[in-house]
Amino acid sequence: MVRSAADASNAHLDCCPRALIVVRGRLIGIDHGIKRIGLAVSDASGLMARELTIIKRKSKREDFERINQIAAEHDAVGFVVGLPLDLDAKPDQHTQADTVRLWVERFAQTTDLPITLWDEQLSSVDARELGKRQKRKHDAPIDDLAARVILQSYLDAVRDGLAEPPQ
User: Fold this and answer.
1) Cα–Cα distance measured from residue 16 to residue 54, given in angstroms and rounded to the nearest whole number
2) Minimal CA–CA distance to 156: which of 112, 125, 123?
3) What are phi and psi of 6, to 5 degrees?
4) According to the model, what pLDDT value does residue 104 have?
5) Residue ranges for the chain with pLDDT beneath 70
6) What is the C-alpha to C-alpha distance for residues 156 and 119, in angstroms, rounded to an integer?
């Protein structure tokens, strides 16, 4: 099942104290790229994300197998995939978001875990800043950091009652 953040209805959250709205179990954050896929993982309480690894793209089949293997190793309960929304795109223009949506549709056929699409706006900027603080080389890949930023943004939104936990 693939859900988009824009599709989520938060009406059910009014019944519950915000402190109770947390993700139960680990999530895998995914920053989809043409050459690399960045992965991050949350802690089991769903409060904090940390970078995990960068997968160099090979084939969809191999990439999906590796992501699912990593998810199984971490007992993940779902995925959060960054969606690069382009507010300036023309309606008939094929965007990066379209590519990610298609990739997610194919990936969803390989897993029973829920997949949530999450706006990744400014995640690369935040990831570069995080890389500087971690003293990474300026030309080092930051895909895993971008996945961490995406996943942390989602976890924070769930905790604040602005997004639904995965179902």
Assistant:
1) 37
2) 123
3) -70, -20
4) 97
5) 1-23, 87, 89, 122-141
6) 13
| Greatest C-alpha distance within the chain | 47
User: Could you tell me whether strands 26-32 and 36-42 are parallel, antiparallel, or unpaired per DSSP bridges?
Assistant: antiparallel
Q: What is the rounded end-to-end Cα distance, in angstroms, of the chain?
A: 9
- Is 167 within the bounds of a domain? no
Whose structure tokens read 């929304």?
Answer: 85
Written as six digits, the tokens of 38 are 């960045």
* 89: amino acid identity, one letter: A
For residue 41, which of 73, 4, 2, 87 has the smallest C-alpha distance?
Answer: 73
Domain count, the chain: 1
Phi/psi of residue 146, nearest 5 degrees:
-65, -40
User: Which residues form the domain of 139?
Assistant: 2-6+21-159
pLDDT at 20: 47
What's the pLDDT score for residue 13?
38
What is the pLDDT at residue 65? 98
Give the per-residue pLDDT at 86.
Answer: 72
Which CATH number covers residue 83? 3.30.420.140
User: Cα dihedral angle (124, 126, 127, 130), rounded to 10 degrees?
Assistant: 160
